[in-house]
Design brief:
It is built from 21 helices and 8 strands. The chain is of the alpha/beta class. The protein folds into 2 domains: about 400 residues, no CATH class; about 80 residues, Transcription Regulator spoIIAA. It comes from Pontibacter ramchanderi.
Length: about 525
């Protein structure tokens, strides 16, 4: 049973939440920029969404550990939406309307859909994201890819795919970036060792902060002493520099409300609302599984929080947001305890835009790739695969199919494929248990008693129909619904159909404690 009564102590947790918020910020910054780039939106739009997700949605959400911001799963939808509406300002209005729809879905209690995704599919999603992070970050780790984020999809806009990008990376290694990447990963691994955690100073300072500051220092050393190793500007963080209030206003964009009469606007808004809601619900479900305290996120409250977030982000020029699993898992891996860590990441994003752009633009992307490689590993540890295998093939097969499908398509398509496989095993399990079958031998005729279970749904129809078809000829069959609180109409109809035709096989059917239904003649 999940613990829903644990009251968070925000002040007492600050020692954990501030370092975790810093780590999430370091992960979120390049993702906000990269997703904007991949979406065809202004670069600043992703930062706006990240700030709103951190400062606003963190408090409105019922989740203590999830982080909201621009989502990789929405890049294609954003790209197509801007193209369909022919202006970014019209698209912003669609984002606002999508937020209104999400709030409405929250009040309509549509969040329950998140509970219908099998655990094996959610765990498969986490493992797949871990593997994608590892595979996608290898080229950046080696300094071989100018586009830090690219896409989460298998097929990339540059014509390469996840694997061909890695092969290409080995022929385009930037030695300086690789050295910084290797040092960064070594520091992060060292920081995870038990003996390091016993030293108070190292417990307070996150390894990711050491990696970021250290990587800037190493690159300065390269520039002055080993210029051939100096990292090219294309493989450094690239944040817009805001030098005044006027410059900030120039970066912000606002919705075009005159587009309210455009029918295409509502199609785009509805698409964003549905996909963003589904992705958020899946993410918080996954975060709840990772939460050491097993706290349960209220799904309807999450839909409302995401809706308000999208309304504000759209009004200020931001791209759509969801609860995002990469940043959320980085938060948990860094030791975040309460929603304060997500809020602090938003504060850092805002401060970075206003005051720290000059310093952050010196940070090598290979150092940030090292941070994401560690997050990816924690999401897809070998123990996760072993644990799923021990649960049996009904859990392991949907888990593996979800991973493979996400790796070779994208997040939502992969989840839907995994869900289809999961449903197959659910149907198979339902097929086995809708009734109790008892056979009695009598001198004149074989008597078979079928006692239906407490709840008989349409999922059980196939099992019952096949059982009735296989009954021996010239038998006496008693179908008893005395134990049943609910029998689906489809099943009642199947029983009536069988009763009508059973005499042709010499079967005498006795139906007890089951109401008769009218069976329509389809001939």
């Amino acid at each position: 049973m999940k613990n829903t009564t644990l009251k968070p102590n925000y002040l007492a947790s600050l020692g954990k939440d501030i370092p975790a918020g810093l780590v999430v910020f370091l992960v979120a910054l390049p993702l906000c920029l990269g997703i904007s780039l991949a979406s065809g939106a202004p670069l600043f739009a992703g930062i706006v969404t990240g700030v709103v997700g951190g400062l606003v949605v963190s408090w409105l959400s019922g989740s203590q550990l999830s982080v909201s911001g621009p989502a990789a799963g929405l890049t294609v939808i954003v790209l197509n939406g801007i193209e369909t509406l022919q202006s970014y300002e019209a698209f912003l209005l669609a984002v606002v309307l999508a937020g209104v729809l999400q709030v409405a879905l929250g009040f309509l209690k549509a969040g329950v859909i998140g509970l219908y995704f099998p655990s094996s599919v959610i765990k498969g999603m986490l493992a797949a994201i871990g593997l994608i992070l590892i595979l996608k970050q290898i080229p950046h780790f080696m300094g071989a890819d100018d586009d830090f984020f690219g896409e989460m999809n298998f097929f990339q806009p540059d014509g390469r795919n996840t694997f061909s990008e890695i092969i290409h990376a080995f022929s385009a290694i930037q030695v300086g970036a690789l050295i910084i990447g290797l040092i960064s990963i070594a520091v992060l691994i060292l920081w995870e060792q038990p003996f390091m955690k016993r030293i108070k100073l190292f417990k307070l300072v996150p390894g990711a902060l050491i990696v970021v500051v250290g990587s800037v220092g190493i690159n300065y050393m390269f520039i002055h002493y080993f210029p051939e190793l100096a990292i090219a500007g294309t493989h450094l963080v690239n944040l817009p520099e805001i030098s005044s209030i006027g410059a900030l206003q120039n970066e912000l964009r606002f919705p075009a409300f005159e587009q309210l009469t455009n029918p295409s606007l509502y199609v785009v808004a509805f698409t964003i609302a549905i996909i963003a809601s589904l992705e958020s619900l899946l993410s918080v479900e996954a975060v709840d599984k990772l939460d050491p305290h097993k706290r349960r996120t209220p799904n309807n409250r999450e839909l409302k929080a995401q809706g308000v977030g999208n309304i504000i982000a759209g009004m200020l020029g931001g791209i759509p947001m969801t609860a995002v699993i990469v940043r959320s898992s980085a938060n948990i891996a860094a030791g975040g305890k309460t929603k304060m860590s997500a809020f602090i990441h938003g504060v850092f994003l805002l401060l970075a835009v206003l005051f720290l752009a000059g310093f952050l633009n010196q940070v090598p992307l290979s150092a940030l790739a090292a941070v994401l490689l560690m997050v990816g590993y924690k999401l897809t540890k070998p123990t996760l695969f072993k644990g799923q295998l021990k649960l049996g093939h009904e859990q392991f097969i949907p888990f593996v199919v979800t991973i493979v499908a996400i790796l070779f398509t994208d997040l939502l398509v992969g989840i839907l494929i995994g869900l289809a496989v999961g449903i197959f095993f659910i149907l198979k399990a339902n097929y086995k248990s809708p009734y109790f079958f008892h056979k009695e031998e009598h001198r004149d005729k074989e008597t078979i008693r079928i006692k239906l279970s407490e709840h008989v749904s349409f999922l059980n129809k196939a099992s019952i129909v096949l059982t009735l078809e296989k009954l021996p000829d010239n038998s006496h069959v008693i179908i008893d619904g005395a134990n049943s609180e609910y029998i689906d109409y489809d099943v009642l109809e199947a029983i009536q159909e069988f009763k009508k035709t059973a005499h042709e096989r010499g079967i005498f059917v006795e139906v007890l404690n089951i109401e008769e239904v009218q069976v329509l003649d389809m001939h």
